[in-house]
Amino acid sequence: MKNLKLVDIEKMSFEEAFNELNKIVDFIESTDVSLDDSIMVYETGIQLKKHCEKKLKDAEVKIKKVVENKIE
Prior knowledge:
By secondary structure, the chain is an all-alpha fold. The protein has one domain: Helix Hairpins (Orthogonal Bundle). It has 3 helices and no strands.
C-alpha cells in the first residue's frame, strides 16, 4: 500500500481518489494489518473521503448553476 501525501490526494481526480479509497477498504478487509499501519491507512482513507466529498460538492454547485441559468 503506497503512502499518499495530502498534496498527492489534492491533485487526484474524483475517480482516482475513489479507486484508492476502494483499495484501502479491500486492503483492510483482506489483510492482517498492524495497529500502526491500520491508523496510517485509515488516516489516508479519511483524506481520500474528504477529497471525494469536495469534488462531488463542487460538481453539484456547477450543475446547479447550469440548471439555474437554463431556467431563467
